[in-house]
Amino acid sequence: MPGWHQSLGKGAAGIALLHAERAHAGLGDWATVHAWLTTVISSGLSAGPDAGLFFGAPAAAYAIHTAAGGEPGRYGRALATLDNAVATMTAERLDQAHARIDRGDLPATTEFDLITGLTGIGALLLRRDPGGRLLREVLAYLVRLTEPLPYRGDALPGWWTYLSPRNRLTPDFPRGHGNLGMAHGITGPLALLSLAARAGTLVDGHAAAIRRICTFLTDWQQHDEAPWWPQWLTVDTAGRLHPGQQTPGRPSWCYGTPGVARALQLAGIALHDAALLDTADAAMAACLTAPGQLGLMVDNSLCHGWAGLLQTAARFAADARTPCLAEHLAELVDRLLYGSGPTGGPAGLLEGDAGVVLALHTAAHGAPVSDWDVCMLLA
User: Fold this and answer.
1) How far apart are CA 117 and CA 139, in angstroms?
2) Which of 250, 331, 366, 371 is the most buried (most CB within 10 A)?
């Protein structure tokens, strides 16, 4: 795969996270970590339009920072070079994003999302420089993103995109869509804003922005055998928002109830809001016991399979006001090890074996020593 060395989701950078976590936990050797990081920087690293947390210079910086573990001087020269590249590209993207808002245009999800956009860059900055100016600028942009944006007569959320979920203009999405997922939608910015607040990094309008997103998500919560959220919303011919699906999807990290519930939980913690925490607890608890939702899982991946549900549930249970949530983790491990989903695959993080092993490592040894799952905005 072109660019495999610089991919956090599918390539060497993501595999390096696995070996870094094992080494930090005293279960692996640092020579292996160094070998994988050498692979990551073995060729040129992108800082262009395709670069984001999961590809290019930001992905390399994230992997190397995770390996360094806060130890002064470890990989210092490489990180300084990457920090400069990330700072330059981030400043350019922020300028473009604010100019777009000033024009009154709608964004592409790649402007703001976790995988490619400024939310992902913010997740990296939250690790590299949690009180820094650049992170605050990203957070200020996300605050502005949550404000309503009148567009061609429609009163739409500021994060509504003019594109289809495939990031292109298509006739079946003539007025774009509003994405609710963690990976590509507004749940990612909610999680980042909440994690930053929890860490004490706040900007003007921070709490109000968190509240706006939470209100939107709770308004669009659906109810079946268990609460759930649609992957996206569309605009009908009368200008009204409506769900893009009528039945629950799989309970995945990237789009399903687990990712949304964790983001709402983080928001409840940041705002000290008991009602939000109760909403999040109820949604996650029901999700973990809903046969109709669990039966939709078809693979073991971190992105949209059992590993992602396990990792999200483990982080959720550690902060939950409902102690019984932790009781479901052993069953999720069994599902991951012995369920019907594929047990082998590419070695990558999001859809491959590295992510599966990292989730099992969390189940066996507790919260990650390296906090590698900040890239999923789980912690």
Assistant:
1) 13
2) 250
